[in-house]
Specification:
Largest sheet: 7 strands, mixed
Low-confidence stretches: 16-20
Strand order of the largest sheet: 5-4-1-6-10-7-11
CATH topology: Spore Coat Polysaccharide Biosynthesis Protein SpsA, Chain A
Helix content: 25-40%
CATH class: Alpha Beta
Strand content: 25-35%
Distance between the termini: 29 Å
CATH superfamily: Spore Coat Polysaccharide Biosynthesis Protein SpsA, Chain A
Radius of gyration: 18 Å
Number of helices: 7
Mean pLDDT: 92
CATH architecture: Alpha-Beta Complex
Order of helices and strands: EEEHEHEHEHEEEEHHEH
Number of strands: 11
Length: 230
Amino acid sequence: MIERDVGVIIVAGGSGSRVGGEELKQFRWVAGKPMLLHSVQTFMARPDVGMVVCVLPQRYAGDPPPWLFQCDVDRLLVSVGGRTRSESVANGLDDLPDEAEIVLVHDAARPLVDMATIDRVVDTVRSGMSAIAALPVVDTIKSVDEHGMITRTVDREGLWRAQTPQGFPRRVLVDAHRRASTEHISTSDDAALLERLGIPVKVVRGSERAMKVTEAGDFARVESLFGLAE
């Protein structure tokens, strides 16, 4: 029997204001179902996942959308989002069962994460090291000033675009969040909390399918990627 030692925190606490409209971005339909549901069902398809915690805005946490319960409700919890992303992840951490020794943190805005990417992250964490999914930067990168004028060309060698999931041994992530809370520090992703403490984090290959839905036009891009072979 496979041990269910993986806990997943899906961060869906943002307002998604850049997408427009009153409906939350993570609740909008894309590629056949609500965006959040894609991620929940993907992670629940793994036999090693014991719990998925969805971190929702406070006004939805007490009354989640009914389609969310199409999942295995015995492995589903809803947590309340915080004022920052770091607070939201910390809330999700508090709600994970003790059996979750490996923690994956995933953005609900990346609905098409694939199982192969998740495997690479989990396998690295099982080896004892934290890991994030990412893709190497292939475009030429320009640094610009406040007027939009180019100031220099940035060497892209060694640059990667961070994605999710990001995976950690639970004790490492809990300690990083505890120290960040004490020092009133918030970061854009959890790997950055470890970086500031000098804890190594490995990059593993992500996927173009796992693009982040940020603006209204991104929904059409996700639709075009749906079903695309790796």
